[in-house]
Amino acid sequence: MHCFASYNLGCMKTQIITLESHDDLISVRDRLSWAKTPRILLVWPKYEKVTLRQVDLKVLQRHALSLGAELGLVTRARRVREDASALGIPVFVSTGQAQRLAWPKPRRRTWPRHAPRKDLLDRRREQARAGEAAWRAYPSVRVGSFAVGVLSVLVLVALFIPRAQVTLQPESKVQSVVLPVSASPSVESVFITGSIPARELRTVVEGEQTITVTGEGTIPQSKAKGVVLFRNLTQLAVTVPAGTVIHSGDPEHVRFVTTRDGVVDAGVGETLELPVEAIEGGLAGNLEAEAVNAIEGRLGLVLSVTNPEPLKGGRELASVQASDADRKRAKNLLMKSLESDAREQLANEISPGDIVFEDTFAVSQILSEAYDPPAGAVGTTLTLTMQVEYSVLYASASDLTELALLALNASLPSGFAPASNAITVKPVTQPLSSENGSTRWTVRAERKLVQQINVAQVTQMIQGVGSQNAQTQLEKNFPLAGSPEIDLSPSWWPWVPIVPFRISVVTK
């Protein structure tokens, strides 16, 4: 807590301000502002440290003077006393001493005044009254100076205002090479030796074909039936379930099934008769006696079978139905149509410049093939529906262009450069595929070349020269296909600019 006290010391009032350890320049300055007495006494605490430097005391002294008051200190600290003495601030050991002793008057700094030197003033007046140099008073000098200035301006105009555009048409020629090319599916990149990848293109087409049936056939009307005799080959009873399959021993293997269950009594030689029916209808089921002699499955190990009487009753009717020749004819017609569609689709997918290897066109796979009606069914017409995948190998235009560029660059004539990126590649011979899967043919690659012109040399040769002379120099020193054109700006200016950056060279 800050302490303020006001005393009447002698005949003049004094404001006493006791400092504390946390006081700094700002806080003490603010406390000085509250003082209303002609003297201000700052009292340092005995056992606490106040961090005020000499420069801070100087600021406080000036602030007190601005308030119309004198500043004094009460402290025993040696450093503070030395700093205050250097600034002319009175220092006391106690407030009592400050009451008894008179305060010294504050020192005021006076600035010396020097009278101006008369000789210096006279010298400056003479310099001010000095006139122009004598040589500048002559008219010829003035005219010459003006002429030099005008000439300088004209030189600058001559250097930077004129502009020239030079249009040159260098000589050109066609570069042409004939390349043997080999394309193979096993090659993955283009080689300058002529090897390029043979790329594959696939397409899927589908369609249907309907034809009139010309074949004749038969339709089963009934199935052959009869009785067979099972004989036991073991000492155990054997059950014969309905649906047991038996068949004849001939290569045709006409098959029959039992139509009801039965049990063959135990004992070797015991027999059982059961009715059977042919699995398929028609005349094929009509068999002579003793024609059936085999049992399918595990029963064939314990039983034997035969037909004591002929198996008969199978009948069939004549009918019109598709023959194998009809199905083959329908497939041939449909495959021709699908091949035509596939070639058309592949031609639409090929990019311009690609070369198709026609002898590699083939069927990749038949995805589906369905006949209606199916084989054996009656019908006066036959419809075939198919879905087929075709494939063909080809050489892409980008690979051929890359190969041509490698070959053309390898044989580029000295002093020439390509006129553009355009390269023409045309086949000379037809592609021919070999047994190892590669296809060989020959192509011709061409592009336009132009003579290279050194722009810096052109600029150096004609700068500052008359337009007609410059044109003659260019025709004489450069291989050109036509006369050079020099356009000057302004049009009435007779010379090519001297400054190089005002000259532009264009080739076409």
Number of helices: 10
End-to-end separation? 96 Å
Task: Specify the structural class.
Answer: alpha+beta
- Examine the secondary-structure arrangement and name the CATH architecture of the domain at 218-318: Beta Barrel
**What is the average of the pLDDT values?**
85
The unreliable regions are 6-11
Characterize the quaternary organization of these chains.
single chain
* CATH C-level category of the domain at 218-318: Mainly Beta
Q: Which value, in Å, is the CA radius of gyration? A: 63 Å
Number of strands: 27
Please characterize this protein's 3D structure:
There is one protein chain. The chain has 508 residues and is α+β, with helices and mostly antiparallel strands. Among the domains are: 3-100, Transcription Regulator spoIIAA; 160-169 and 452-507, no CATH class; 218-318, Beta Barrel (Elongation Factor Tu (Ef-tu), domain 3), CATH 2.40.30. It has helices at 25-33, 54-66, 78-87, 95-100, 118-128, 139-160, 324-349, 397-410, 455-462, 467-477, and strands at 3-9, 12-18, 39-43, 70-74, 91-92, 163-168, 172-184, 195-197, 199-212, 216-222, 225-232, 238-240, 245-248, 255-258, 262-264, 271-278, 292-295, 303-306, 315-320, 355-372, 381-395, 416-418, 424-427, 432-433, 439-451, 485-489, 503-507. Strands 7, 8, 22, 23, 24 and 25 form a 6-stranded mixed sheet that branches. It has a 6-stranded antiparallel sheet with strand order 17-13-14-16-11-18, with no helix packed on it. Strands 1-2-3-4-5 form a 5-stranded mixed sheet. A hairpin with a 6-residue loop joins strand 13 and strand 14 (255-258). 20% of the residues are buried. Mean pLDDT is 85; it is low at 6-11.
